[in-house]
Design a protein that fits this description.
heterotrimer; A alpha+beta; B mainly alpha; C mainly alpha; A: alpha+beta; six-stranded mixed β-sheet; C: mainly alpha
């Protein structure tokens, strides 16, 4: 009977409730939001993208969550204590936190959540970021079969103890990542792969999924059981896949969308001028760069040549004339982030003219000049933006005596070429998953495998980056990252081009949309004027 | 109906050579002559572009990024988002597009018409097998065909023509076959058959000339389609590579910034439409000139 | 004719099988796989996924497995859209694509054939030139240029219609027009071409000479015969248009299946690509069979034996 109730009656009630609420449309506050693409999955443990995370952050809630300004604030946990060695976290869960079906959210749910995330059967892309939890790596790699050995323990229903392998200053931030969200055990076990469907899904966030039409829209409504439901203003959120940015902008201008996912870069100067209140352009934790293949001759063997290439790229012109999205010219690998002091390439403050002379000198040292140019191939995947930049860089390099040929490849072909290191120079980009330098630093460890596109290997760098894992003093830890970055930049294994910005159009009707570098804007903090 | 069909097989009048006759009739068609003149002019401009003393197609002007037509500076079509001269790029791009259009025309004229006419004329099992092959080629995912081509043969312009040739004749084959099965029962064909004329000769001398109308029309539909398909190939990393371009890639690039830089899509499109119109009039003129029923 | 239809339908099975087999191996030979991403998937995870999707088996075995699933109507799970199976994705999107495509084709047929007939009757008049001109624009200016112009004008500037989205009846208007325009152009050109041919042929001349009223001559002889190339063209055109258009669907935000052809291919979503390929192949075969049957209806002399 219970099952019948849940499967048939409950959805019917929801539908009835929805219809009733449509009838009272005046009273209902709806947020229409462009969300880039069709979500691949809304299972927080299996998803990987920003599109999915935007939805999951609204319908699920981690122990901590995002404040409108991006700060870490209590989520399902009301408070916590951190041991002196930084390795044990004790969370006190809210007693009034409920799942969307009314069940209480308990510490056991979080333990199950962590176990599901690192379960080898789940095959979660992001499972490795939980390796900081004791035994997580072993369980994930199937070396430890006993899940109870995981360093996450329900002391009682409302107390959760998490043991870490080392001091992890960014752990509280990690808990906001979808991989750390709890999932409802009974529902997962009952519906297996179908548990994320509307009608089946049980979630603990401020919203619950009610409708999902692939490629058209995904709708979630306020979860009446949410602990802070009284303060949630927006009754319903509709997320639209908006792959075509120009059309998304038109839908915004026509009033069909309240918030856009992005803005077409060509139109940014116009938006800045004509929509100063709606257009939001903010720094974002990402770096666009050209990676140099160190395993290939000429460039791999000669740091001078790599430096010359980097000197030859006029980043200011690229961002002001070509990309035009307000990006910051990049002279470092790590994007600007809180608490971290970036390292810079040594020519950062040199005027462009002097850089070009320097570049020519370095090339001449190895016998290259305009008459005998250095030949390199520049690989990029098909995209208007990548092409514009590549064409511009090609002409900049021409001036210093580098003859670059451009090669564009379809996305997956490009990835394979890059992984197999069959390129001289390739465009690449990296976006952080959370606000900590380790996100960028661990990519160029000599044992990072294919992630290390350059084939970079420097024992000193490895030592510094790996040392951060056991360093208990946060300031010292940041200094180590800084030193490592400086070493890495001096080796010129890649050419930083710009640091990303994130763009949105936000209607004047929308209140509560604040700047935040991680670019998460929970619907529960937003209001939409009618 | 029978008497009408017999009338269709008029004895050929001996006299002026067929070609001279066709030429005379073509030259009397003003629209066709004008079309031909435009086609020749566009072709000369595109292939002669390097000798016209224009800018290079990859010359970047950092002070003229994405600006509209500016006659004073000699940017007749404006510039693209990299500050390159769109007039020059349209001319250079025309080289690729014109060749692609020509290859598609040739392939679909030769393979398409022969395939369709043979299938339709012989009929039965042969027809079934031949047309099922067309269905199969039509249905297999073109994207993967292209990706595999790039991987196996690496990139070269010849590949583009190969890929486009491989698909451009399929619809033509269907159209010609449709025409063929409607005329193969006509008395003039059966008469030829009965008097021992070989199948090949019937197909080339009687069937194909009688399909010419739809063939010419469909030709003028295929050419723009393949010119645009070519831009999809470069999206897959196979078509023209920077700094080269084509009308298709210029139009699809221009379309992305249409809202703020309409010239980038308007001019290449306009050049292409004018060329295609010219091609249409030439096609119509040729069809009229060569029509066996009018002789 | 019934016999012929049955034989053709039986013959469709091996044809579909060849399409499927060629596509299956082609798709799998392409470089890159479904799990290649900018952010590399950890090795253990990739190994697990490969095992879960049976990609570790030899290709022929995978093919047999796939065919076995198909026989039970199971197209397999999507690699990209993990919360849905391929069958669900296709059956959720196909009715929309079908309805849109058929409406567009119907409109294109009516408008295109009428325009074609009209301009053939007034050859080399201004209306003829106008129709050639617009037809060439309709063909040469692609959807991705026309559709954004339509949303700009009718959606943003005039506020007559919504720019995008799905659910309201008004959401259908612009996409249908965008899909119909190139088809209208093609139908106009094809009809005009064959009409001219037939109007000049002796049998119509004779019919006119015999004093039959022109309208009767036209409908009875000319138009029926003139439709042959239109019918030939329509077979593949219908299959194309009812399986959706990636561009039109993306621009208007329509939940159809058109984008699965391109996106599925780019994501190397093997099962999704094969699913839509089978659907497309089946439609091509059916539409071409219908075209062949139509030949017989238009021209009683056409016989298949």
């Amino acid at each position: 009977m219970n099952q019948v109730f849940k499967r048939l009656v409950l959805p019917a009630i929801t539908v009835a409730a929805l219809m009733a609420s449509t009838a009272l449309a005046q009273a209902e506050m709806v947020l229409h939001r462009g969300n880039g693409a069709e979500p691949e999955t809304i299972n927080p443990h299996k998803s990987t993208g920003v599109t999915e995370a935007n939805i999951e952050a609204d319908i699920f809630e981690g122990l901590t969550t995002y404040a409108p300004n991006g700060d870490i604030v209590p989520g399902a946990a009301e408070s916590w204590e951190i041991s002196d060695d930084g390795k044990t976290y004790t969370f006190h869960l809210r007693k009034n936190a409920k799942w969307s079906n009314g069940d209480a959210v308990t510490a056991k749910d979080f333990v199950f959540g962590f176990q599901d995330a690192i379960n080898p059967e789940t095959a979660a892309d992001y499972a490795p970021i939980l390796d900081v939890i004791v035994n997580a790596e072993k369980i994930r790699k199937n070396e430890e079969k006993d899940f109870s050995k995981l360093g996450a323990e329900a002391v009682d229903d409302y107390t959760l103890k998490v043991s870490l392998t080392g001091p992890t200053p960014y752990f509280l931030g990690l808990l906001r990542h979808p991989i750390s969200y709890p999932v409802h055990k009974a529902t997962v076990e009952k519906f297996k792969d179908d548990w994320t469907r509307p009608g089946n899904i049980v979630s603990n966030g401020a919203y619950q999924l009610t409708e999902w039409t692939p490629q058209a829209s995904l709708t979630y409504v306020k979860n009446p059981n949410y602990w802070d439901a009284g303060n949630v203003k927006v009754d319903k959120v509709v997320m639209y896949p908006t792959e075509d940015l120009a059309e998304e902008l038109k839908r915004f201008k026509a009033g069909e969308l309240d918030v856009t996912y992005d803005a077409p870069s060509e139109q940014i100067p116009d938006l800045e001028k004509n929509y100063p209140d709606e257009f939001k352009n903010t720094p974002y934790l990402g770096t666009y760069y050209y990676v140099i293949n160190l395993t290939r001759e000429a460039l791999g063997a000669q740091p001078d040549l790599r430096k010359a290439l980097s000197l030859g790229v006029n980043r200011e012109i690229l961002v002001s004339k070509i990309t035009q999205g307000g990006e910051a010219p990049a002279y470092s690998w790590e994007p600007p982030m809180s608490n971290y002091k970036q390292a810079f390439v040594d020519f950062k403050d040199m005027p462009q003219k002097q850089r070009l002379e320097e570049a020519k000198k370095l090339l001449e040292k190895h016998g290259y000049s305009k008459d005998n140019p250095l030949k390199v191939e520049l690989l990029y995947n098909t995209s208007e933006n990548h092409k514009k930049i590549a064409v511009a860089v090609q002409s900049m390099w021409k001036q210093i005596g580098v003859d670059a040929s451009l090669r564009n490849e379809e996305w997956k072909v490009y990835l394979e070429t890059r992984d197999k290191k069959q390129f001289d120079v390739a465009r690449a980009a990296w976006i952080a998953d959370y606000d900590d330098p380790i996100n960028f630093a661990d990519m160029f460890l000599s044992d990072a495998g294919e992630r290390n596109d350059a084939g970079y290997s420097n024992p000193e760098y490895d030592k510094l980056v790996k040392g951060t894992g056991t360093e208990t003093d946060p300031a010292k830890r940041m200094q180590m990252f800084h030193d490592a970055e400086q070493i890495f930049l001096n080796d010129n294994a890649m050419i930083p081009i710009y640091h990303y910005t994130s763009q949105h159009m936000v209607s004047k009707k929308v209140a509560g949309w604040e700047y935040n570098i991680l670019d998460f804007h929970l619907a529960r903090f937003i209001t939409v004027a009618q | 109906m029978t008497d009408l069909a017999i009338l269709a097989v008029q004895p050929e009048v001996k006299g002026r050579s067929l070609w001279a006759d066709a030429r005379r009739r073509f030259m009397h068609n003003k629209a066709a002559v004008a079309g031909l003149a435009i086609l020749i002019l566009v072709t000369l401009l595109c292939f002669g572009a390097p000798y016209l003393g224009l800018r290079d197609q990859d010359e970047i002007n950092w002070d003229m990024i994405s600006v509209g037509p500016n006659w004073a500076e000699g940017y007749y079509f404006g510039t693209d988002q990299n500050g390159r001269d769109l007039f020059v790029r349209t001319l250079y791009g025309g080289q690729v597009s014109l060749i692609v259009g020509m290859v598609a025309t040739l392939v679909s004229l030769v393979i398409g018409t022969l395939w369709g006419a043979t299938a339709g004329f012989i009929g039965g099992r042969t027809d079934n097998v031949m047309m099922r092959i067309v269905d199969i080629l039509y249905s297999i995912p073109f994207i993967f065909f292209v990706i595999l081509l790039t991987v196996v043969f690496n990139k070269s312009m010849v590949l583009i023509y190969l890929a486009i040739g491989a698909v451009s004749w399929l619809d033509m084959a269907r159209i010609v076959r449709g025409q063929t099965i409607s005329i193969r029962r006509k008395e003039f064909i059966e008469a030829a058959h009965a008097s021992g004329v070989s199948n090949w000769r019937i197909i080339t001398r009687h069937i194909i000339p009688n399909c010419l109308g739809p063939v010419v029309v469909y030709m003028t539909l295929t050419v723009p389609a393949v010119i645009l398909t070519e831009s999809f190939l470069s999206y897959l990393g196979m078509g023209v590579q920077e700094p080269n371009s084509s009308w298709g890639t210029l139009i699809s690039e221009g379309a992305k910034s249409m809202d703020i830089a309409p010239w980038a899509v308007v001019f290449p499109s306009a050049v292409m439409v004018v060329t295609l119109l010219a091609l249409n009039f030439v096609g119509d003129g040729l069809r009229d000139a060569l029509d066996p029923k009018d002789r | 004719m019934l016999n012929y239809t049955i034989r053709r339908l039986i013959g469709a099975i091996p044809t579909l099988f060849v399409i499927l087999a060629v596509s299956f191996f082609m798709v799998r030979m392409a470089p890159g796989g479904p799990f290649d991403k900018e952010r590399k998937v950890p090795a253990e995870v990739e190994a697990k996924l490969i095992q879960q999707y049976h990609l570790d088996e030899p290709l022929p075995q995978q093919f047999v497995r796939y065919i076995g699933g198909l026989a039970q109507g199971d197209f397999g799970p999507s690699f990209k859209y993990k919360d849905f199976t391929v069958s669900e994705l296709i059956w959720q999107g196909f009715p929309t694509s079908l309805a849109l495509g058929l409406s567009a084709i119907a409109i294109a047929l009516i408008v295109g054939v009428s325009l074609g007939i009209w301009s053939s009757l007034r050859q080399n008049s201004w209306i003829d030139y106008l129709s050639v001109g617009t037809a060439m624009m309709g063909i040469a200016v692609p959807n991705f240029v026309i559709a954004p112009i339509m949303t700009l004008v009718f959606g943003l500037m005039l506020h007559w219609l919504p720019v995008g989205g799905w659910g309201k009846p008004t959401n259908w208007i612009l996409p249908i027009i965008a899909l119909a325009i190139p088809q209208i152009a093609a139908f106009t050109r094809l009809t005009r071409g064959s009409m001219l041919e037939i109007l000049r042929s002796n049998f119509v001349r004779t019919a006119r000479a015999k004093g039959l009223p022109e309208l009767v001559t036209l409908t009875r002889h000319a138009i029926r015969a003139a439709l042959m190339p239109v019918v030939s063209y329509m077979g593949p055109a219908i299959a194309n248009i009812v399986t959706g258009s990636v561009i039109v669907e993306q621009i208007f935000g329509i939940p159809g299946i058109g984008r699965y052809f391109v996106q599925g291919a780019i994501n190397r979503d093997y099962t999704l690509v094969l699913g839509v390929t089978i659907l497309f192949g089946a439609l091509v075969i059916i539409c071409n069979l219908l075209a062949d049957i139509c030949y017989g209806l238009l021209d009683p002399k056409v016989r298949y034996d």
